[in-house]
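dumping this here so i dont lose it
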């Protein structure tokens, strides 16, 4: 899952390599198991998440809303005094609409990045997204050892997943976000896992980008709920860009 690069305008030790490293495939399988199991994930058709977002130390706060259905993903950030930023992948097209910079179609690595933002698709269909996984060592995350796994997608730039060695939970994802400002390094940590409808889900996500800490705390997570009609449809200004593209 990525934050909007336009928001940023507002504002590592070597791995220990061992012959006994668990495979990336086995760590993904363990993560699926400890967070609910394949049978539970197979029942998920969509997820809606809502909560608060803040830029730590910047006195910037607002609301965050995420809706995912299959590989479709929509995210909105709404800040008082700043406005709303939306980002969406509808299964074919990817776009961004910002109160600051206006509408924009996403292509290339930017499009690939938002396609990978759907946590449901990444978990249940990770083999369709990534062509290679490789465990490269162990590294501490918040004082606890984690397995470090390089994930190479079929499209877009490589990512690094960190799985807590004791719990098996995914606790960090490092990636490079492609944006209008160029490539941006992202360090996303997941915590406060809780059982919701049989799925252990992280309710706090902290993303470190360009010396900023963006904290999202979700107060509502609903699986297989009603998604508003047209949730993944582009707004008029984006639809106009798509029409010119055809």
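and the seq i came up w/
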């Amino acid at each position: 899952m990525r934050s909007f690069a336009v928001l940023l305008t507002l504002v590592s030790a070597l791995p220990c390599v061992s012959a006994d490293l668990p495979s990336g495939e086995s760590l993904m399988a363990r993560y699926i198991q400890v967070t609910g199991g394949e049978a539970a994930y197979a029942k998920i058709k969509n997820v809606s998440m809502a909560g608060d977002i803040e830029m730590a130390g910047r006195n910037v706060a607002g609301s965050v809303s995420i809706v995912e259905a299959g590989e479709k993903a929509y995210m909105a950030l709404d800040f008082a005094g700043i406005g709303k930023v939306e980002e969406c992948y509808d299964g074919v097209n990817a776009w961004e609409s910002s109160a600051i910079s206006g509408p924009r179609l996403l292509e290339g690595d930017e499009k690939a990045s938002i396609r990978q933002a759907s946590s449901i698709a990444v978990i249940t269909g990770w083999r369709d997204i990534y062509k290679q996984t490789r465990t490269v060592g162990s590294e501490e995350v918040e004082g606890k050892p984690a397995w470090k796994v390089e994930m190479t997608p079929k499209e877009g730039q490589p990512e690094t997943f960190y799985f807590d060695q004791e719990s098996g939970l995914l606790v960090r994802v490092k990636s490079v976000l492609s944006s209008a400002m160029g490539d941006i390094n992202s360090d996303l940590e997941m915590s406060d896992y809780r059982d919701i409808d049989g799925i252990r889900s992280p309710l706090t996500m902290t993303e470190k980008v360009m010396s900023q800490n963006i904290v999202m705390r979700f107060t509502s997570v609903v699986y297989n709920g009603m998604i508003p009609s047209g949730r993944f449809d582009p707004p008029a200004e984006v639809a106009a860009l798509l029409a010119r593209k055809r």
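The longest strand covers residues 182-196.
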